[in-house]
Amino acid sequence: MTDSHLENGNFDWGIDGLVAQLRELRVQSLETRSRRDKPPKLPSRKELQTILDGLGAVLFPNRLGLPDLNDEGIDYFVGHTLETLLRKLYKQISRELQFVAEQHGLEGSVHGQALAIARQFAVELPTVRILVDSDIQAAFEGDPAARSPDEVLVCYPGITAIIHHRLAHILYRLGAPLVARMISELAHSSTGIDIHPGAQIGESFFIDHGTGVVIGETAVIGKHVRVYQAVTLGAKRFLKDDNGMLVKGNARHPIVEDDVVIYAGATILGRITIGQGSTIGGNVWLTHSVPPGSSINQASVRSELFQGGAGI
Amino acid sequence: MTDSHLENGNFDWGIDGLVAQLRELRVQSLETRSRRDKPPKLPSRKELQTILDGLGAVLFPNRLGLPDLNDEGIDYFVGHTLETLLRKLYKQISRELQFVAEQHGLEGSVHGQALAIARQFAVELPTVRILVDSDIQAAFEGDPAARSPDEVLVCYPGITAIIHHRLAHILYRLGAPLVARMISELAHSSTGIDIHPGAQIGESFFIDHGTGVVIGETAVIGKHVRVYQAVTLGAKRFLKDDNGMLVKGNARHPIVEDDVVIYAGATILGRITIGQGSTIGGNVWLTHSVPPGSSINQASVRSELFQGGAGI
Amino acid sequence: MTDSHLENGNFDWGIDGLVAQLRELRVQSLETRSRRDKPPKLPSRKELQTILDGLGAVLFPNRLGLPDLNDEGIDYFVGHTLETLLRKLYKQISRELQFVAEQHGLEGSVHGQALAIARQFAVELPTVRILVDSDIQAAFEGDPAARSPDEVLVCYPGITAIIHHRLAHILYRLGAPLVARMISELAHSSTGIDIHPGAQIGESFFIDHGTGVVIGETAVIGKHVRVYQAVTLGAKRFLKDDNGMLVKGNARHPIVEDDVVIYAGATILGRITIGQGSTIGGNVWLTHSVPPGSSINQASVRSELFQGGAGI
Amino acid sequence: MTDSHLENGNFDWGIDGLVAQLRELRVQSLETRSRRDKPPKLPSRKELQTILDGLGAVLFPNRLGLPDLNDEGIDYFVGHTLETLLRKLYKQISRELQFVAEQHGLEGSVHGQALAIARQFAVELPTVRILVDSDIQAAFEGDPAARSPDEVLVCYPGITAIIHHRLAHILYRLGAPLVARMISELAHSSTGIDIHPGAQIGESFFIDHGTGVVIGETAVIGKHVRVYQAVTLGAKRFLKDDNGMLVKGNARHPIVEDDVVIYAGATILGRITIGQGSTIGGNVWLTHSVPPGSSINQASVRSELFQGGAGI
Amino acid sequence: MTDSHLENGNFDWGIDGLVAQLRELRVQSLETRSRRDKPPKLPSRKELQTILDGLGAVLFPNRLGLPDLNDEGIDYFVGHTLETLLRKLYKQISRELQFVAEQHGLEGSVHGQALAIARQFAVELPTVRILVDSDIQAAFEGDPAARSPDEVLVCYPGITAIIHHRLAHILYRLGAPLVARMISELAHSSTGIDIHPGAQIGESFFIDHGTGVVIGETAVIGKHVRVYQAVTLGAKRFLKDDNGMLVKGNARHPIVEDDVVIYAGATILGRITIGQGSTIGGNVWLTHSVPPGSSINQASVRSELFQGGAGI
Amino acid sequence: MTDSHLENGNFDWGIDGLVAQLRELRVQSLETRSRRDKPPKLPSRKELQTILDGLGAVLFPNRLGLPDLNDEGIDYFVGHTLETLLRKLYKQISRELQFVAEQHGLEGSVHGQALAIARQFAVELPTVRILVDSDIQAAFEGDPAARSPDEVLVCYPGITAIIHHRLAHILYRLGAPLVARMISELAHSSTGIDIHPGAQIGESFFIDHGTGVVIGETAVIGKHVRVYQAVTLGAKRFLKDDNGMLVKGNARHPIVEDDVVIYAGATILGRITIGQGSTIGGNVWLTHSVPPGSSINQASVRSELFQGGAGI
């Protein structure tokens, strides 16, 4: 075989055979999942990225929208962007509902329900703006390196994550949990912050640095809570039913009350409660509730551990 | 100096001088690396991103390919995409082989070898589909928040990482370790999961959340293993030869047997073995082997540590 | 409501009302921040991404520039790219200075100052090349998995992070801290490595794996320092002034002297000094200075901790 | 007003008033056309351009498709492209049918009819390939400047025009005349050759140079006809009905029999017949039939004209 | 020289020498034009294309704007598009005025004048909509092949040309003749219809087919005029001043009164008047005025020509 | 069949059968052209468009290159653009030579010859700049509507056409006639001016308006010639050899000497000579030589015609 042979494109990959093998595997996979026919469509990650970019622009047109907007044009930009992205969102929600309906063998159109979700989502957008304003202010006040709220908005990955979360959580609550999850993962990929869309988070929430933060589906977080990088609010263990299958959906993540600070690397597991105003030190491993005003650090946890503390 | 002066573009950057200085530094750098002539080309990160997108589409055309594929068109899409990306991959592999050949002063064409690698890679693609199907199923069964295998495929960063790894590992094994590494880093950048392409990983592997996971070059992982965020399977120390240079390539990362679960933040270092069915607790720091069925947590490690445990 | 009704586009989103509500919230937000008029513009993340891509290409045209450059064309490429990106950078710096001037109610043009910063930045580019060459060499020598310096340059996220940092730090020092911060966050998003642009870092710096690394604003790092994933060089506590506001800018992060190695997960907090040649073990939590040549690991910290160690 | 005033974006365009005026004009326009509600959608010129590019690629994949196709991949490319563009074409046809239905107040879905048209269009594609092959051969044989049939295919605007026409004519015949017309205008814009999609054109048709050629809706052209630039096959006059409205659709353009050559600038008007094998000279103005084998030039027309010839 | 030599990129083009030669020629060219310094910038063809696309969308949002607009979003789209393109247009007009000012050695800012032009242009947009509506109606009534006014709008090159002209003419009149001319040439390139922006054209103007139509700078065209392909309304001769230089700007093109029809290929030259309601036949060559109601064809012109006809 | 059926994508196009039919037709076509194997590649129209855009930018960087170039950056831009496009051009020339070699069954590499052509082309670029400068000056002096040479360069389609021609003609002369022809057709498509790349054209050539101009392969045009729209310099008849095949390449188009003006619509056919300084009137049909200083118009041609003039 010569190079010029290759220049002529005679690669002999065996494409026909590969295509046949891959088709066979697809068919088997569908049968395994009891969908013997063709697979229903899923929402598109790429479309959702476009929608989220648009939502950022609608909420903060001067900062996350177009750089050259002026007073006369700004409302037209907001209205046009909003109208466009709501239609796109409606379509993605429809895909999720259709997908679920086919899984359960349901018939009938999902469009009405999808539209209702998208409309209610729109209604709640101003509230998201108010909440994110409080998050920005919390970050500005909580970080000595922050020079202005505007810097926080355009620089801080924690703000990116919380904007995505507050939007995703609405959709999760309204009945589009898959679209919500995909939105959360967009933020996870760009920030390293992994907040399940089911988590309930109060106003003025601040995540600093953020890489490695994990917040679980049933976590409940109060107002004015501050969290640093690599903090986990996770489940301690998973319940299984009599068939050995995981029980899905039960409350299994921590409740964090107002004004709590959790330093970097702390791991808080299980349906426990961190009382109001508590401080959890860095790298602490915590699996039981603490009363309001507690101050927990590695030493206190460890000393407790060695004073007969039950294992994990 | 006035603004209008700037409008006319008289910035006086001193481009000529900068270009000359930078050229001088490039030449010195080449001489340092014993390549006095021009630098050989390397594979392109951007091209590899395109290739990986295509491979995802080929393996899962309905989920990671085009949103509107139908039965009649799907095989044509798969075949066309496959043919296109294999040619691109062949070219990137050629670049790596050419680069290595020039470093070692070898002559002769690398095209035949590059083609052989690309062809064998193609042959193994159906096996990758089978393995990733097992990974998806493992994630679905292992996460109470997962609603369907399809959601897992499109949402979970752990799946993105393992698809990249299974493809990169083939190339690593066939003799294109640089292309393999660049593919791994694409996944690392988008997921925060850092799996060296040399790692050997069995079927049904599930990484949850994933940010901060590091799996080293010579790690060996069995079947049905589950790993959470921030887990490290690393080297304990690096061997140096008589000249003080690092010894490269020796087995220095853990062996994890079948059915092991490793919780978030655990650090496992050195060529040790985690016996089948063991559970390693969160944040555990482990540098010695444990027998099958072990259940290791912070308390057990620490108590051992203070009972005369040798340091690290 | 029927599907065809939707096909005709009668979604009734209530766009007019939403636009009005969002406008009202924007106005309130501006008033809160004492900017009753329209908001000044900020630097653009997207533009900065383009500028950073160009700077990588200028510094390493054969590796991060165009794949097909040859000797005859390379200086033209470098000169053209440089000239283009310096003008863009100048514009972004102007935006920051204008923004700050408006916040402080200053008048007069900022263009002269912006140009001075951009010019000095250009002057320092060759130095950045020299420093990054030392970083690449350090990574090649420090990682047994590295096969060549070229592989390090195109694969290692730590190199991506340090290139961004060395460029951002110049701008931070010259008086464009917001542009600097935005550049740092570009690296943070793609690598999971969070280095504040204020940090001072000596030559031959190597970050391996890197996800979760956090290096604070006033950290000072010597030459030949090596750092692994999830290492934090952070502040221990924040000072507040008499009004309860955070004191901004004081030295609050560690000093790391030459030839120090810090293993994965170590947390080093406060204005302490890690003496030359020390080794800090994985997951160590350290809040006091250690002398040159120290070797600190979890056991030693803990034993100290339980021998009357003050809390954190 | 100062420049810096403009920099701040206070242009005062009066957007609100303009938007209101333009809305009012749109509403009036709809009322004039008896469509008091919202306007139905029309086919998209941009989509049709994409579809036509795809059809060229399907018919001549090696010449108008991808430059690097090889034997193994070509059918996959053709099949994938075909499947994609037929779906797009179906959608554009649906738009036309829907538009017409709304104009006539018809109800019921047009999708079945649109699909039938698209399917029949697909069936006729191989015939188009055969016809265009004959056109290419005719150009190669008819132009001394042509070096190969391949050059003709990629260079000659006449070939671009006839490919568009042969595809548009099928759609015109099957009942999608608006889509057909839009396709014709794509060719008109890029070649200056204006062939109405209703024209019937036999095999081996060659247009040289082509700019300014106009061929009317009811023209009928035989086999092996050759036409040069600026030739018009037009209508002599338009019939009006009793209300003074133009009668649409009646046969009003020339019939050109087999083997006719028409030189540049000739104008042939009305439902006349140019007999088989005739030659029409450059710039001739012809409004009456000529028998087979005629040779018409300016002199002959003029002499006839002045020998008592009836006016035009 | 071998192929592999080329693969390594040693082409030896002599770039340095070419760059130097071309620089020398640029400098000479500037000196010739009495601009010894750097050349002022000109408006950008590409930007004007974007602006014209936007103007089409603003005037006909449902037909030339976005395909999926609905009632709720349409005004936001129009307002946003309008605001964006007016700013762009203002910038292009500024470039023209700046260019002219530098040619004449004038100082002082042109921004105020540019803004005044752009604002007045905006004020006249609704009038353009009314005029183009009349043009569309004229085409629908004048072409038996037209099925609906909407088809005319999206298909007919004559409509594309007249939309461009009506917009360009405003700018020509307001004092931006270069921007106006560049807009006209955009239409010329895509339609083959060449209307100088100075031409004055009344309502209900219809150009059928259009390729090759040329209408000169000082032409005056009344209402309800119809023109076919390849019609020229040109100058008969150019006046020169005492220095032999062309006199620019004098009235030198025809006046065409209301209700005139001019058939394909007619050439009408000089400042003559075609009286109201006249019909000019195809290919007629006309250089003298004709009274209202005239019907001119080739025969009549020629017979006149030979009855002692003065030359042309 | 229902709409939702279609939503699921069951279109049943019969793709498999169509792909098979089209493949069969491709194979037949190759056999017909005596290329039984796979078709050689041709130059790419799209690549050539990119190359021509680059050449315009290299020749006139301030007008056809980047809008914001300044003195310091311009040579770098020119050098970088030039180096890039010459490599691309070399590749396209190689394709043509390879294509011709395969047609003639030749073996051996064409790369050396392609490189020689590309290098010589580069050498001649400064000459093209000089010639086009003369063309621009001619247009400025010849058109009363032209306000500056810069306006001519950016507005006039005749300048676009002559830039393309002067570049294409070099390639035609050096032995790449297919690439040359494709370049000519790019200009033809955007301007309606069709100049065969073989035509020889002297300095200071001006085409006004231009739509419909056709200039044949063997035409020879002197200096300071001016031509208006729809002028044809064509062949009178084509010679055939004993086999009835067209004789290709013989001199068959007019010679136009210096200082000739040819008005719109004139048709000049055959290897005749238009003597220096002659004026050819509009719409004249001319097939015989005229001496220097002639002034030909319709009347003179016609009177000659009827005074016993031999037919055409």
Task: Walk me through the structure.
The structure is a homohexamer of 312-residue chains. Chain A is of the alpha/beta class and 312 residues long. The first copy, chain A, folds into 2 domains: 27-192, Orthogonal Bundle (serine acetyltransferase, domain 1), CATH 1.10.3130; 199-299, 3 Solenoid (UDP N-Acetylglucosamine Acyltransferase, domain 1). Helices cover 50% and strands 10% of the residues of chain A. Chain A contains 11 helices and 14 strands. Chain A has helices spanning 3-7, 15-32, 45-59, 61-64, 71-103, 111-123, 125-142, 149-155, 157-174, 177-191, 298-306; strands spanning 194-195, 200-201, 206-207, 214-215, 220-221, 226-227, 232-234, 255-256, 261-262, 267-269, 273-274, 279-280, 285-286, 295-296. In chain A, strands 1-4-7-10-13 form a 5-stranded parallel sheet. In chain A, strands 3-6-9-12-14 form a 5-stranded parallel sheet. In chain A, helix 6 packs across helix 9 (157-174), helix 7 (125-142) crosses helix 8 (149-155) and helix 7 packs antiparallel against helix 9. The radius of gyration of chain A is 24 Å and the shape is globular. The first copy, chain A, starts with a helix and ends in a 6-residue tail after the last helix. Chains in contact: A-B, A-C, A-D, A-E, A-F, B-C, B-D, B-E, B-F, C-D, C-E, C-F, D-E, D-F, E-F. Chains A and C meet through helix 4, helix 5, helix 6, helix 7 and helix 8 of A and helix 2, helix 10 and helix 11 of C.
Nutshell version of this structure?
By secondary structure, chain A is of the alpha/beta class. In chain A, 50% of the residues lie in helices and 10% in strands. The first copy, chain A, has a 5-stranded parallel beta sheet. A 5-stranded parallel beta sheet of chain A has the order 3-6-9-12-14.
